[in-house]
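Protocol step 6 of 9: fold each sequence in the batch and record its structure tokens directly after the sequence line. For illustration, a two-sequence batch is reproduced in full.

Sequence one:
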Amino acid sequence: MRTLFLQAPSFDGFDGGAGSRYQARREIKSFWYPTWLAQPAALVEGSKLIDAPPHQVRLDDITPTAKDYDLAVLHTSVPSFASDVKTAAALKAHNPDIRIGFIGAKVAVEAEKSLRDARGMVDFVARNEFDFTIKEVADGRDWSAIQGLSYVDRDGSIVHNADRPMLEQMDDLPFVTPVYKRDLTIENYFIGYLKHPYISIYTGRGCKSRCTFCLWPQTVGGHRYRTRSVGHVIEEIKYALKAFPQVKEFFFDDDTFTDDRPRAEAIARELGKLGVTWSCNAKANVPYETLKVLKDNGLRLLLVGYESGNQQILHNIKKGMLIEVAERFTRDCHELGIAIHGTFILGLPGETQDTIRQTVEWARKINPHTIQVSLAAPYPGTFLYQQAVENGWLDADNAELVDDHGVQIAPLHYPHLAHEEIFHSVEDFYKRFYFRPKKIGAIVGEMVRSPDMMKRRLREGVEFFHFLRERRGVAG
């Protein structure tokens, strides 16, 4: 079947890419690669991938092409679902015969509800790990025989086929970078803490940790870290180096790339031979010896989910991290010259005004190079969502997790802590972390040393203050 893979336009500046931890507008212009769409696209010969948000493609630009396709596969999320259904309706208005399917964590765990809410605009959803499910649909296989598929039958009833087993041989998945080369303009992808242009890929799926809020391991990837072979990863990097000579950094977007330390070290040593600059996600428990191997072989930055500076909250969310271990890890990174982008979440179970202050002070103390502060987002399919519903922490009015402009809201509230208190604490966190002499000096020094960084930080500063003004409008 002639197949279109689509990350649809929605909110202006909305980062809905499947690689992202949560889907929303960012503090500064940021776009992750649509890797979860690119992967099945790589399996379907002759397919086309359109990633509308970073390429500023409007719906009016897409709908006339609907007649050129038999099948459209859209990635969706809780915040963008209603908008994505409207996109599906627009495609069907231009081509009534087109079959439309949705993929993503939202439909993986709410297949029945999603199909009902789409009111005939979506013909099927692919649950859980969906790569080969989509390939079989595109190959024209009878839907009743496709594992992992939920679909609307001819009589309007919803059919759920048996689950598809998790993929064990990860090398069976083709490279995604040829799809990037064919269909994407990589200069349109920005992440504030990564060099530009960058490329991100997965070297494995799943995460051993059990964080109650984390979306992908609980909905699609699972809690076993299933990995590509070292050789398979390195061959893709070699291809990408030739296909994209302008790339300045590679990012491995595995939930926790350092979960398998011997493998991480083996990949690092091969990357070192290639002279590659790279970064990855890590847990704040990697020992000094492994960090040194990674750093000596091209590692520049680690993206680390600290979440909170309060030990009890870390226990509440099953983070599996001790404050003192995280502090030692951070000191080791500073000593080795490994930059850290630290992420924090406000509004997790057990949060109070005191724990928020404690987390802000702890972030200032450990001093990662840059930070991101998010609001606790209870996505369906996560344990946090179940907790929030059972305890009355989540109101129906906040269930979409963003406002009408795609800006993240504070969906959770507690008897002792209101939505508004959690929401306003984000801006205070950013100000107290960045607006201090030591941090300002470090940023200015970085700008002075690099004209490119000077232009970039000035642009990001303008975007950041615009973001804060917009947040105040949301609060008002």
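Sequence two, same batch, same settings:
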Amino acid sequence: MGQSRDRRCIVAVVCFSPSISLWLSSRGSRTSMSKRRKPTSTARTRREKVAVPSAKGTSAASLPSNSSSLAPARASRRQHHALFRAGALLVGLLAGLLIVEFGLRVLGIRPERYRKPRWLAWDGIAYRDLGIWGNGLIRRDSEFRAQGVLMGEYVPGARFKEVFDTNPRGYFDEDNGVPMEVNRRGLRGPMVSPQKPPGVFRILGLGDSFTFAVGVLEHDTFLRRLEAQLNAPLPPPAQPRGQASVSTAADNAKPAMYEVLNAGTQGYNIRDEVLYLEHRWLSLAPDLVLVNFYLNDAYADDTFRNMGEALGIYEEPQGLGRVSYVADLVQHQLAVRRQRRYTEDYYLKSFFSQADRYVDDPGALSADWKLSRDALAHAVELGRQHGFRVALVIWPELYELEGRYPFEPIHKLVRETCARLGVPVLDLLDTFRGRKSESLWVHPSDHHPNEEANRLAADAIERFLREQHLLTKQSGG
């Protein structure tokens, strides 16, 4: 990607420029040596005449010393030669940098930079850039604001786009955007009837922007994929030859159709989600509530770093970097290294590595874990009262999946909590581990799971639901 390209360019600057300077320096050395070529016979004759005594009887001490008279000249030549080499080295370095600068400009190579994604809201005529809340066209204040829901709620019928600077996978539309819609019930996806039709098994997905699937087209979201896969006909089980197929009680309990509803909302934590479950979504009579846990359900939202900043994609050229492509590349790479070191050190801090102690006693820092844990327990109790089951899916941070993933203690904490509450849990870290993190991003400026990550999640969740026998109605439900 862009980072590796930047490194290759800097290698070219570092390696290519000195090679030119050394070549010029060596040329200068050969020129200097040629000037000190062997003296002619005339010059030798003159030196011999100077060396012969002019009169008989002149003492040897009175003869001029040839070596002492030549020493200052030799020192001067050596000094001149050293200065020439230094000058040639400097000129060569400058020439090399100019050649690299020219090459970078011709090829248009600069550090990977992007603006932050823009949010365009449909106003009935056109999409307009009105910010992430769309000036009331995308989100509005929550009716539960007094209970602590500060991230608002989607406006029923809202249409909007997330728009990026580039289209690296060819996935976005002509505006480099992804259109998204909210139906009249405030859910993402097609409209559903308020009364559950007979024979339908309803799965309600709760979560934040990972569940809503920001930056992913509707048919590629993991919940819509899950619905399609659950409704696809399964091959009949193999029967011994000559033996008729026998239906079982489990087969008879299977619903005629599955509906999967997407109640994900950007910025929500489990407390917010369960509040809406209790006061709004229970009327839809879900049979299974699928809670999607992302790491900021345990921590405050600002605990996690903006990975675009960590990768330097928002770094603007500074000083000489504004006019020189070479200086810009070098400055940018140094800034990225500083940011990476800071990010790595930050995620090794005790409130991540010792999550079980930190989230229960966060000290001066804020944490959402107690609220989320209590809300999950309340969801389980609501399930007992209203005849639905609860399962939980853990979404990992898409960072260092192929290396030293720093958040495993949080995953362990959530799994153990689910075990105590009797909630089946699927950890998607096992699904994504070993993959390049950037291959699962919506865009370098938006690290939400892309369509490939959603596909992998849908496959894993389908297997999980079948293995845990969560796809049939509870008795009396």
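Proceed to step 7 once all outputs are recorded. Observation for sequence two: The two ends are 51 Å apart (CA to CA).
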